[in-house]
Amino acid sequence: MGNHPEHSSKIRMKRQILKLLSMGMLGSVLLAGCVTHPGQAVVVTPTGRVVIPETPPPPKQEAMGPPPSVTYVWTPGYWTYHNDSWVWVPGEWQAPPAAGSTWVAGHWDKVAGGWVYTPGHWE
Q: Which helix (H) or strand (E) holds 107?
């Protein structure tokens, strides 16, 4: 059974998969340190959480306009941090994924070293 070609092939495949997974994990660990941008020190924690040292701007007032349907829900816009600057992502009308779903808006939270964004989601 040890020299069976099919068994040997499965072992090689498992080793390749483990090697790829190990390389991916190592890359994640190496990228989890500080990422420096000109003028700002954005930090990516080992869990993948991005900490922005700068306070986000206040939310913009948006004109919602009429919904495309009575079932649609307004999902408000939010600030994101991209290429060393704050960028506004406009709100939009969205159809809930299921009847009775509730939209929980995203928000910025103050943490040690800066601010972290929790994206909006359906519950």
A: strand 107-111
